[in-house]
Amino acid sequence: MTEDEMAGWPHRLDGRPWKVASASAAASTLSEPPRRTQESQTRTRALGLPMEQSAASPEPPGPRPVLGRDSVQVPDDQDFRSFRSECEAEAGWNLTYSKAGVSVWVQAVEMDRTLHKIKCRMECRDVPAETLYDVLHDIEYRKKWDSNVIETFDIARLTVNADVGYYSWRCPKPLKNRDVITLRSWLPMGTDYIIMNYSVKHPKYPPRKDLVRAVSIQTGYLIQSTGPKSCVITYLAQVDPKGSLPKWVVNKSSQFLAPKAMKKMYKACVKYPEWKQKHQPHFKPWLHPEQSSLPSLALSELSVQHADSLENIDESAVAESREDRTGSAGGGEGSDDDTSLT
Q1: From the CA atom positions of the chain, what is the Rg in Å?
Q2: What is the pTM of this model?
Q3: How far apart are alpha carbons 272 and 280 in whole angstroms?
Q4: Which residues of 33-72 are buried (b: 16+ CB within 10 A; e: fewer)?
Q5: Which position among 18, 131, 184, 192 has the lowest Cβ density within 10 Å, counted as fewest Cβ atoms?
Q6: Superkingdom of the source (predicted)?
Q7: How crowded is residue 279: how many other Cβ atoms within 10 Å of its Cβ?
Q8: Within a 10 A sphere around the Cβ of 337, how many other Cβ atoms?
Q9: How far, CA to CA in Å, does 122 sit from each of 127, 145, 267, 309?
Q10: pLDDT confidence of residue 339
C-alpha cells in the first residue's frame, strides 16, 4: 500500500493504525466504496474521513438478501450486523452435536437437499479473541495446521478490510475435491471480530478440471471475547458444493468433521503465539494494512459466482470408502497430527 493510499487511514498518536471503526469507514479509503448506513456515516464523520455524496434515490433500509446478490459489493455495516444476528439466532436450527464445549447445528430442512447450512460454536479457554482472529487470517500458518487445505493464497485487495482469495480443500474420499474463489471481508468490533466471505468470479482463475468449483453463498466466523484469555467462536457456512451429495457426507460433516475441525483449530490457536514469534512476528497485514503487498483490484473486474452457471456433479450414489469409515470410527487420530505447528 502506497503512502498516498494510506493518507486517508486514521492513525493513532503512537503511529499504529486504529482498528476499523466500521466497514464503511474502511471502504472509504479506496475507490468503489460500498453502500453506507446512517450509523456508519456518523462514525465516518467522527473519524474525519471523506464522506460520500448521497445518492439521488437512497436504497431502502433492510438487509441485503445474500441469495439475491446480483453485483459484487464489499459488505457494509448492515451486512455485518445481519451476519452476527444469523450466528446468534436459534430459530430454524436443529442441534446435531454437543460435547466438550463444541456444538453443531444444521438448518431445519431435509438432510438430502443440495444446499446445506451448518453452524458450529466452540468455547475457547486460554485463547484470547485476538489470537483466534490472527489464526484465521494467517495463511502461512493455516498451511501448517489445516490438513484439509490443498492450496490457498490471496489474490488482490479491494479495501483495507477486504480482499479476494483462493482456497481448495480435500473432501472425504471418494468424493472429488473442491475449490472456491471468495471475496473476504473482516471487521473488528471492540473485543469482538467478524470474518465473512462469498463466492466471486475472477477472470484469471476459472474453474479447474481436476477440482469441483463450489459456491460460498455466505460463510464466516463470529469471534466473541469472554475474557482476557477466552472467547467463543461461531462458524456459519451456507455453501452449495455443486453436487448432489450422499446423506452420509452431510451426516459425517455435522457429526464428525465439523467438531474435529473446530477442535483442531483450537489446538492451532494454543500453539500460534510460539509459532508466530519465529515467523515474521510483526507481520499482520489484517491489522496493519500498510504492510500489504497485494495488488489493488477494482470491483468491476469481479462478478458474482452463481451456482447455476457451474457444472453440477452428481455424487449422491457414492459410497464412503472403507478407509474413511474406519478412520471415523477410530477418531481419526492419524489425520490429526499437529507436530508441524512448531
Answers
A1: 20
A2: 0.74
A3: 12
A4: bbbbbeebbebbeeeebeeeeeeeeeeeeeeeebeebeeb
A5: 18
A6: Eukaryota
A7: 11
A8: 9
A9: 11, 18, 12, 35
A10: 34
